[in-house]
Design goal:
single chain, 5 helices, mainly alpha
């Protein structure tokens, strides 16, 4: 009789051997693309901030965190502005996405 640990180890070795031989995709190849990750995170961000006032976020931050918060918000604002402009132009051209 084989212990559970030995069975797990055997399955792990078989999975690694199959990945090496190209028989199954590796977990890295199954990871979502950066574009898919950004799209998902933007949707989650919109859900998270839907009912939160910006002033509450500022008031809840300590003075040191405010420096990082300001920088992050500035970067996101500029980046999202570019996305909004490009997406709006693509929709007007009749080529969304």
């Amino acid at each position: 009789m084989t212990s559970k640990g030995a069975l797990r180890q055997q399955r792990y070795r078989e999975r690694r051997r199959n990945e090496r031989d190209g028989m199954t995709p590796s977990p890295a190849s199954l990871a979502p693309s950066p574009v898919a990750q950004v799209t998902h995170l933007l949707s989650a961000l919109c859900d998270a901030i839907e009912n939160v006032e910006p002033m509450h976020v500022v008031e809840a931050s300590d003075p040191i965190a405010l420096i990082g918060l300001a920088g992050d918000a500035e970067l996101c604002s500029a980046w999202l502005g570019a996305v909004a402009t490009l997406a709006g132009a693509a929709v007007k051209r009749g080529r969304p996405g």
